[in-house]
């Protein structure tokens, strides 16, 4: 057991309280690539913020390697929907930012970053600034920064949502190459059923608000997956059916 959520709930209190999540429970094993899908407003990003420690659950437990991490930051690598690259820093300076914040040896961080730039499609761009990069390159830089934080779990919150369709497909294929080589444990948030079916070992499905886990779908299709295969099309239909339930 790597990441474990047990009966996690969250309500936002204001003039009218809004319950975002209701008793969500699941487990992610080490090295798994798990996607989380749900309709807009189902609590997907709230769940990421809870796991990252940016929010504290009203009830329930979040554990990483058995340790309770409710409300604690610094345990996971979190890549939000926007790349959040600092425009005044070069690519290399951006991707080692986590090492700087953690006060780790910077030369060692630079060397590791440079060694990974080719895998991330950024060879020759170490000294470029974010404004000089395409949307896909910016997302690759943001993911490299997340991986270089050396956290046991990566939370990727709709990282390709702002990209055009062609770039998004290229990034999906590239992400599978990176995952196959580095084998991180990933929780990938998306609203795209096709994307979830293409990338994942398992797909978790949240209901409409308040978000409850209504399906946990294992995927046994070999990678790389062909979207025209009958089994892949059946999987997409199953996931769409779960969302509509």
UniProtKB/TrEMBL annotation:
Native source species: Candidatus Thermofonsia Clade 1 bacterium
InterPro entries: AAA+_ATPase, ABC_transporter-like_ATP-bd, ABC_transporter-like_CS, ABC_transporter_ATP-bind, P-loop_NTPase
GO MF, any single term: ATP binding
SMART domains assigned to the protein according to its UniProt record, in alphabetical order: AAA (SM00382)
Pfam families in the cross-refs: ABC_tran
Protein name from the UniProt record: Nitrate ABC transporter ATP-binding protein
Keywords: ATP-binding, Nucleotide-binding, Transport
Domain (ABC transporter) ranges: 3-233
């Amino acid at each position: 057991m790597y990441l474990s959520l047990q009966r996690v709930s969250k309500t936002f209190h204001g003039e009218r309280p809004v319950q975002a999540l209701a008793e969500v429970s699941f487990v992610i094993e080490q090295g798994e690539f798990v996607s989380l899908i749900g309709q807009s407003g189902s609590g997907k990003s709230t769940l990421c913020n809870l796991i990252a420690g940016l929010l504290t659950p009203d009830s329930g437990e979040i554990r990483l390697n058995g340790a309770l991490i409710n409300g604690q930051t610094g345990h996971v690598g979190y890549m939000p929907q926007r790349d959040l690259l600092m425009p005044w820093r070069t690519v290399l300076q951006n991707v080692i930012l986590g090492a700087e914040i953690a006060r780790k040896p910077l030369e060692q961080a630079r060397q590791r970053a440079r060694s990974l730039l080719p895998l991330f499609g950024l060879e020759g761009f170490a000294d470029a600034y974010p404004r000089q990069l395409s949307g896909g390159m910016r997302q690759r830089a943001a993911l490299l920064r997340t991986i270089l934080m050396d956290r046991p779990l990566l939370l990727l919150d709709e990282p390709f949502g702002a990209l055009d369709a062609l770039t998004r497909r290229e990034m999906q294929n590239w992400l599978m190459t990176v995952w196959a080589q580095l084998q991180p444990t990933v929780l990938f948030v998306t609203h795209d059923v096709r994307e979830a079916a293409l990338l994942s070992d398992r797909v978790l499905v949240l209901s409409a608000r308040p978000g409850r886990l209504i399906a946990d779908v294992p995927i046994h299709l070999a990678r790389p997956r062909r979207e025209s295969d009958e089994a892949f099309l059946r999987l997409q239909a199953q996931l769409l059916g779960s969302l509509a339930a």
